[in-house]
Amino acid sequence: MLSTPPLSLYVHLPWCVRKCPYCDFNSHEFKGEGGRGALPFDAYVDALIADLDHDLPLVWGRTVQTVFFGGGTPSLFPPDAIDRFLQQASSRLRFAPNAEITLETNPGTVEHGPFTGYRAAGVNRLSFGVQSFDDGCLQRLGRIHSSDDAQRAVKAAQDAGLDNLNIDLMYALPGQTLAMALDDVERGIALAPTHFSHYQLTLEPNTVFASRPPSGIPDDDDAWDMQEQCQARLADAGYAQYETSAYAKPDRQCTHNLNYWRFGDYLGIGAGAHGKLTLGASQQVLRRWKLKHPAAYLANAGSAAGIGGDEFLSESRLPFDFMLNALRLNEGVPLTMFEARTGLPRAAIAGTLEIARERGLLEVDEAWLRPTELGRRFANDVIGLFLA
To answer: Strand, coil or helix: what is 309?
Structure first.
């Protein structure tokens, strides 16, 4: 049966101190004079509020379950800017009690005092872009922090009373060995976060690394060994893998990302932000994205000119978009969720499910579908089967 899914709010803060050579996100080095103080915090928060006001009719009466500040480097914004936005947003939208509110932070850009300010503003989950605890690897990745910076930042957040913390770690880095990858995981575990994101370095198009690949990147077999052994160590330490690159202590999965992977709705505001919303009695699925460049966004936010594009998903496209998210989950999803989130009968994908099952890529029964171990390893092949 068709039903409106949970709603999240994604807020994009686009600036960073230095663009990393592997990064393909909508992030922009701030080149103005004066460092942090020269960033247009007030003007950008005003733009976010105008952007939110423009999109509010799409989500009237719905409750926001989670908020996620992504970037760029959101921790460049001081706590009072985050506080002002959250106050304005919660006066316009109903926030669920104890809504998960996440802020991404770079250990090299936080002045460790403000963590108490972020917590007072309503942030109750932090995600640290550590990537590695090896200073040589960090330098080759173009990061601006050291391993000591990362450890101090995580401990400072814990001292400020923030106990729901994610650490991002990458593997298959230039010059990295299996022992180095395992040491990164070991040092992360010692900090006792509640969650890890552990993912392989990939050379994305339109990045510096894509045009000038670094030397010493481990080959596919070595990368697979790193993934398997790091995954086993995380499991031994009590972090269960629940998604392709996500590991969590019990009941500490990222609720915001789970909503993405279960094909939930999210309102996207900020420069380059993407959203996905289920609209009206017909429950059509709309994807909307905003202008990418911060200057263009600041000039047009809150008007139709600030929208980079709109797309209603066709019935033939819905199965692919649903599976692109849902098959990232180790446990898979109930087939009733496919019906509820797409409005399509399971018969619409029955033939494809049978092909994937026969190839050993999916486990499918009357109530549930989930990727097999082989399906998780070759996830892109599985998802590609659902292309129209």
So the answer is: strand
pLDDT < 50 stretches in the chain: 33-36
Amino acid 24: pLDDT: 82
Reduced to 3 states, what is the DSSP secondary structure of residue 65?
A: strand
Give residue 277's pLDDT. Answer: 97
pTM: 0.95
Distances from the Cα of 361 to the Cαs of 11, 30, 339, 357, in angstroms? 35, 45, 21, 6
Return the pLDDT at 34.
45
Number of domains comprising the chain = 2
Is residue 273 in some structural domain?
no
Position 271 in a domain: no
pLDDT of residue 2: 66
Residue 29: predicted pLDDT: 85
* Environment class of 38 (CB within 10 Å of its CB; exposed 0-12, middle 13-18, buried 19+): exposed
If asked whether residues 252 and 345 sit together in one domain, one would say no
The token duo for 352 is: 């494809």
End-to-end Cα spacing for the chain: 23
Query: What DSSP line would sit under 102-159, residue for residue?
Result: EEEE-TTT--STTHHHHHHHT--EEEEEEE-S-HHHHHHTT-S--HHHHHHHHHHHHH
Which class for 237: exposed (0-12), middle (13-18), buried (19 or more C-beta within 10 A)? middle
- Looking at the structure, tell me whether residues 21 and 119 fall in a common domain: yes
Angle, helices 79-92 vs 41-55, to 10°: value is 20
327 inside domain: yes
| Cα(265)–Cα(258) distance, integer angstroms | 11
